[in-house]
Each structure stands twice: as structure tokens, then as C-alpha cells.
Known about the structure:
The protein is an alpha+beta fold. It has one domain: Sufe protein. Chain: A (Alpha-Beta Complex), CATH 3.90.1010.10. The chain has a 3-stranded antiparallel β-sheet with strand order 1-2-3. It has 5 helices and 3 strands, in the order αβββαααα.
Amino acid sequence: MYSKKVMDHFLNPRNVGEIKNADGVGTVGNPICGDVMTFYIKIKDNSIEDVKFKTFGCGAAIAVASIVSEMAKGKTIDEAKKITNEMVVTELDGLPPHKLHCSNLGADALHKALSNYAAKRRKKKRRTETKKKGKGNK
Length: 138
């Protein structure tokens, strides 16, 4: 039996879609049940300005992605990194035991998008530093 909150987020998912030119993208899947979840994030001033998701999966997976997107929106990067699977389940007022794996997907996909953002920033920083060094040698 699903909670009212799970049913609400399944029937009326928030933040569904894709962000073109997202600052970070993270995709995870569960090979056992076939659920796949992708999160897209837009970062401004070290905070998640926008978040969208696409999910292929059961009602619980859709509800999890929806609630995670709401939990992350407006949070700083550090705050969003602290979102755990347990927090997701609590925020949804519980999930049936056989659906708890879905909560892992939401938090994991968000964390993967944050890691992707951090990797892009490091790469951009290295390119900028390399260009500055190259100009200094001329």
C-alpha cells in the first residue's frame, strides 16, 4: 500500500522533463527491476536553480524522482549532496519494503548529476588555467 504522498507524486509528478544545456546530468538504473532515472540540474550561485528528471519505471520510481527534485530545488550543492535514501523514504511517508530500492535511484541520480557538474567545473578550470599559462609564455 502506498502513502497518499507517494500517490500524489506518482499521479502528479513535479519537475518532469529535461534541461537543455544542463550543468549536470546523472543517470542510474536498476538492472533487476528495469527502472532508469535521469536528473538534470542547473546551478546558479552554488545552488540548484532548476532540476528536472525523466524516469522509466514503476509508480514508486516516479514518485521518488518527483520528491527528490522538490527536495533538491533551491538547495546549495552541499545541502543537496546530503540528501539520503532514508530522507527520501521519510519525505514520502514511507515505501513498501519491496520498493525501497527505488529510493536509492533518486538520491543516486541526483548525486551523479552533482558529480557530473563538479567534473565539468574542474575540466573548465583546467582549460582556463592552461590558456592563462599559454598567454604568459608569449
